[in-house]
Amino acid sequence: MTIEALSNKLHSALKLQQDPCLIQSKNRHFAPLVVGEFVAASQDFPIVFIKEQETGQFKSIALLGIEPGSNVFYSDEGWQGNYRPQAYSLSPFMVSQQDNNTDAILCIDNKSPLISTEHGRAFFDEKNQACDWVSKRGEQVVSYVEQTQVTQQFIKVLLDFELLAPQTLTLKPTGKSETSLNGLYAIDEKKLNALDSNKFDSLRQSGALVAIYASLISMQRIEALVRASSKA
């Protein structure tokens, strides 16, 4: 991965190919999710949480497979899910923001297989100005980064209310060996239902309930994930 600030001096000849497969998701068994994606993503994927060992920070993810390196939604013929996680669909774009600076710099991964000089949409027009689609994509990336901050606030609420519980998924696809997914956390529905009215109302007022219920509902997708893994 080579991260560079998008520049008409460095990248005037570059083009971006279409990504019907979400190539960045190949061999990834989960996708990072921001809270604004929970409702749409819950129709396809189980939504759970992981805790980074180095930082202790919790992150929300969508499970794409039940074994590391296995993504049942990836296919060379095109993405097999209805929802396309933004962490992959926005690739190879990202933003860089210096500390104490509100300006965000649009960057690209110059080593992405989606970038070439021969095929795709040009980043810059004949006047060497960024094309309209680049500006729109930049806005989407900035919005995604802002949503990551909102997501951390949401997760903090879950932790403050002690609603995240360790979860180990032991799964057995047909014709394959049993596998266990460790290190996951899920919303504890019993603790949610046991909250007093004041705490529950504070969740409602904060807007957290929609994402909470989306995550709970999404767990019904585990069996579909197992079935898809059986066919892989």
Task: Describe the structure in your own words.
By secondary structure, this protein is of the alpha+beta class. It has one domain (3-231). It contains 7 helices and 11 strands. Strands 3-5-4-11-10 form a 5-stranded antiparallel sheet. Strands 1-7-6 form a 3-stranded antiparallel sheet, covered by helices on one side.
Topology:
Layout: E1 3-5, E2 15-16, E3 30-32, H1 38-41, E4 47-51, E5 58-63, H2 86-89, E6 93-96, E7 105-109, E8 115-116, E9 121-122, H3 132-160, E10 164-171, E11 179-187, H4 189-194, H5 197-206, H6 208-218, H7 222-231
Antiparallel strand pairs: 1-7, 2-8, 2-9, 3-5, 4-5, 4-11, 6-7, 10-11
Fill in the keyword field for this structure:
7 helices, 32% helix, alpha+beta, 11 strands, 3-stranded antiparallel beta sheet, 5-stranded antiparallel beta sheet, single chain, 232 residues
Instruction: Tell me, briefly, the overall form.
Output: globular
Name the helicity range: 25-40%
Could you describe the largest sheet, including whether it forms a barrel?
5 strands, antiparallel
State the end-to-end distance: 29 Å
Q: Return Rg in Å.
A: 20 Å
Order of helices and strands: EEEHEEHEEEEHEEHHHH
Number of helices: 7
Quick overview:
The chain has seven helices and eleven strands.
